[in-house]
Specification:
Radius of gyration: 16 Å
CATH topology: Aminopeptidase
Structural class: alpha+beta
CATH architecture: 3-Layer(aba) Sandwich
Order of helices and strands: EEEHHHEEEHEHEEH
Oligomer: single chain
Largest sheet: 9 strands, mixed
Length: about 200
């Protein structure tokens, strides 16, 4: 496996070429005016609704995204394949998130949430390259040695993608809105077998 190869671009916070996927993967921060319509459509997609349950009208989605974007403990990204926006990501400091109530969080732990928007990208093998690229991006912070995620425990497809990207299952956790599968990706494990 050939992992992501970082390249330079002024349009993205992070961009890489994944040779396995044969695609350029980029992450740029969400811009509410530019991205609101696509986020609203993605959150209302049939494949997203069971896990995000945010099928809100446009004004409510705007409010939610603006609120999340103003939170200094997280950053919202649009993920692209070959410069086509197709995914939404939340990157956050896990110690400042509700997930810290469920494990011994280190102050430098990062957490990620994601959704793939357009249905045509599902089942095409893009999930693991995207997650690996986001993990490599998060590990650019020199003190971060662990990435955390907690996909819905029913979402076996997402859990498999995380496992293919270096994450290991820890245990199920009862969160206020779901049963999550707590998963960790340690820097050493990632760099040895997934980077």
């Amino acid at each position: 496996m050939t992992g992501p190869q970082e390249v330079v671009s002024s349009n993205y916070s992070y961009v890489t070429v994944d040779e396995d996927a044969g695609k350029t993967i980029g992450f740029r921060e969400v811009e509410i005016e530019r991205d609101l319509g696509r986020l609203h459509a993605w959150l209302n997609s049939e494949h997203v609704l069971p896990y995000w349950t945010q099928d809100d009208p446009l004004p409510v989605v705007r409010e939610t995204i603006e609120e999340r974007a103003s939170d200094d403990s997280q950053t919202l990204y649009i993920g692209s394949l070959d410069h086509v926006p197709m995914s939404y990501w939340e990157s956050y400091w896990a110690a400042e998130d509700r997930i810290a109530d469920y494990y011994d969080a280190d102050p430098a732990d990062r957490g990620i949430h994601l959704l793939i928007g357009p249905e045509e990208y599902l089942g095409e093998g893009y999930g693991a390259p995207l997650v690996r690229a986001m993990v490599a991006f998060q590990f650019r912070h020199p003190e971060t040695d662990r990435i955390v995620t907690e996909p819905d425990a029913r979402n076996e497809r997402a859990i498999r993608v995380f496992e293919q990207s270096g994450f290991e299952r820890v245990r199920e956790v009862e969160l206020p809105d779901k049963t999550g599968q707590l998963m960790f990706c340690d820097r050493e494990r990632f760099e040895e077998g997934y980077a």
